[in-house]
Structures are given as structure tokens and as C-alpha cells.
Specification:
The protein is an alpha/beta fold. It has seven helices and seven strands. Helices cover about 35% and strands about 15% of the residues. It starts with 18 loop residues before the first strand and ends with a strand.
Length: about 230
Amino acid sequence: MTHAPVSPVPASPSPRLKLLLILPHPDDEVYGASGTLMTLLAEGHNCGLVTLTHGEAGRTLGLCDTPEELAALRDTELRACLAVIGLTTTPGSSFEQHNFPDKYLQDQPIEPIIETAREALARHRPEIVLTFPPNGSNGHPDHVTTHRAVKAAWDALPEGERPRLWYYASDTAPENEALLPEWLPANLRRDVTPFITRKLQAIACHRTQALSTVDFIRRFPERIVEETFYEVGV
């Protein structure tokens, strides 16, 4: 598979971003950070998203039949979600999607993934970069691999040039004891109540993720109105 982004990468630096998310799947942006994105965009900041896969290995819920059809559907869902958030309609903000294989990031050479993260950091010069924590939040290997790649790219930057590094985080310790040693409880909270209606609409754009939506609301209802993160070094 090619690792080139869907859109050509401009040779010159883009406008600097306030917040850049680097995540593996369509929908990883919406549950824990869409309210924060909407807040920052409303304040006039540029934000960005790098999605590494098309999510073709996920559940279809009977909405399509093949991995190729699922990838196309999830691309459509993601773009609808980002339009609700305002990311794709805000000049200066950025979205790009790569073709790394869904579910099998851990089986890929890590260097191309690190290079994707490094290039995005160099081009967008974000004030903050957000990704998954060391345990991937739920242990998903794509989440863990994405963390490793983003952290390696971040570590390679000169100390004075590193953006603030945020991870998705929760106040609730994971039920899976294997995830506990790398659990990082939230040390940063953002009230996103003013954007609750649009956040729910954005979540609902990911129809193929309906079971994940139900599970998230059942387990973490408080994170619909308050988005929580772990900031490294605080």
C-alpha cells in the first residue's frame, strides 16, 4: 500500500495550527476532542487532523459488504463529521488521510509512520499535538502504535521546538489490569457544554460506529460535556 496522503502535501509550511490531532481511525477525533476543536475554531484558531487509516477493518453493521466499501463509507462519515465540527470549512485548518492498513499498524515498519507524524509536525508547527496515550486508552494496537510514532517524532524535535503534547485521558482507571501500568489520569479538563448539540451531531455522522458510540456514552457519559486529557510535563 502507498503511504501518501490523499491530498498533495504543499512544499511550503502551512499556517501554524493551535491543535493538531494525529490518530489512526476515522471517528477517533470525535468522542474525546470534537468539543475542544469546535471551541478553538470558534475562537479563531486553526486546527488540524491527520488520520492514518480509512478504518476498513472495522464493523460494517450491515451498512456495506466489503472492506473497500467500508473504507469509502467511513471516509464519507469522517468528512461529514469534520464539516459539522467546522474543521474542513475553516480556512487555514487542515485535514489529511493516509493509507496505512487499518488494524495492522503494529505489523508495519514503524519508521514510515514516524515520518508521517514528523512531517506533519514540521509543516503545521502546532502549539499542541494530541494523540493516544501509551496504553492506547483501550489497548487497541493501532492506538498504541500511533502513540509510539507520534511520541518518537515529538522526542526527535529540539526541546525548545516541541509542541505541548496531549493524550486522551480519563479519570476512570481502566478495567483491564494489563492497561493499568501505563494509565495516565487526566490532568487537563475542558468544558465543552456550549457545543454539546453539535458534538452529538458530529458523533452521529459516524453511523458505522453506532456500537462504539453507545459503549462510550454508557461508560463515560461525563466526557460528552467535559473533554479530558493528560498533558505531558505538567
